[in-house]
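Example A, followed by Example B.
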Amino acid sequence: MSTGLIAISEYIPKREGLLVRVDMSDYLIDYYLHRKDHAPDTLPEHDEKLKELIACFAIHLSARTAQETHAWTVHLVADQPYSLFVTGNTGIMDETGVARGFLVGHILTENIRHTDINSIHAQFTNRGKTFNSMVRCDSDDIPRMIEHFYEQSEQYPLRLRLSDSSDTAVGLVALPEYDDEWIRSVDFDQLLVATDVEKSPMRTCHFAFSCDCSPEKLIPFFQTMSKDALAELYGSDEELRITCPRCGKQFSIHRDQVGVEN
């Protein structure tokens, strides 16, 4: 059984920081199998960007509560326009300090408008309320974009480092009343092994690459449309191919399923 992406967080008192260590190695098995089946033509450079975004997003989620579901859409300047999308939540922590949630992402390449601005559009829901923000970024480097997003939207620092040699990442999230100078200057290598810095275990999050999309979830949307609109949508086709924007999985919706006559 896959353990998914593992994010282990530790609270650093007095400095008021949250240290998060991410291991994507097991998660990426499911990620690659999914993209092999549903997005086999993914460009390597797009794939790398999405993996980086997933690692950063896992660190972000690790600092949030189980009541929140987050989503980020990242628009990047490119000759052939594309966007990255991620969504997920941590799940509820059990008595052992382990939470099991989901984190899924997709590369959007169809019907993407050209842009001259790198940007992050963020949304999260908490107890039925939805909050949105948008931040423009000078860089298309994913970790730097996320750090800039935190400075502008969250109004506190986040430091990120992704490994060049393994499927791991580390993040340092500032908490309320954080030590600004320490958060911005502390050396990651020293912090990870330091014995003179108090660290208290918070929780371990296991994020599965999973999406609950299905034809059954899509049909109610079609049923809100008028018969004429549906007939125009289908034209002479017997079925429509629908792509889930969260994970890229495709479904066929036959005209009979939504009550469109031939």
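Example B, a separate protein, is given below in the same form.
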Amino acid sequence: MFDNIHLATIAIIAANLLVSIKGFDDRSFFERYKFGISPIRAGEKERMLTSGFLHVDWSHLLFNMLTLYFFANVVISWLGPGKFLAVYFISLVAGSLLALFFHKDEPYYSAVGASGAVTGILYAAILLQPSMNLYLFFIPIPIPAYVVGIGYLLYSIYGMKNRVGNIGHTAHFGGAMGGYITTLLFMPDLLFRETLMVILLAIPIAILFVLEKMGKI
């Protein structure tokens, strides 16, 4: 299963594994480097990056790393390992920036996890290869990737608005935006080659900011 994993993907997984295990065993380390509104606003900006390598538990870590594994090669095959890493880190920071924007008046808001970065890779893969089919848990039929991407972001908006579960919906959404924008910057010809997909995948992003301007989220 893992015989075709790229060195860049291995490096990201290893970094997440090492930092997360340290956080599992050392609560002070976890608290020092997690995403937190108050400490970030007090100047600890590094938390916007370091929090993306911490995870709550093994299941959280495993889910994110498996998702990364399944979609990393799509991005690497189209953009190369260097740009794959750029998409990953830009998506991570974009997730943190959007979380900071939407939760700036919530001093006790905190979050951890690679979900923003991984969602950026997922959204980049969908934009690069929108015709691929995905299989979701408990649904034994293939679903077009772009449908999954749009549906996921619409659910993220719902989750942000209604505070559904103990999930960083804002970071997920910000990561997807980072992956979307960075991929288009790296491959601007997608605007002409996959115009419909570019527009469709932008719809949830437009909806989010319209709702924010209207004060609905």
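On Example B: The mean pLDDT is 90.
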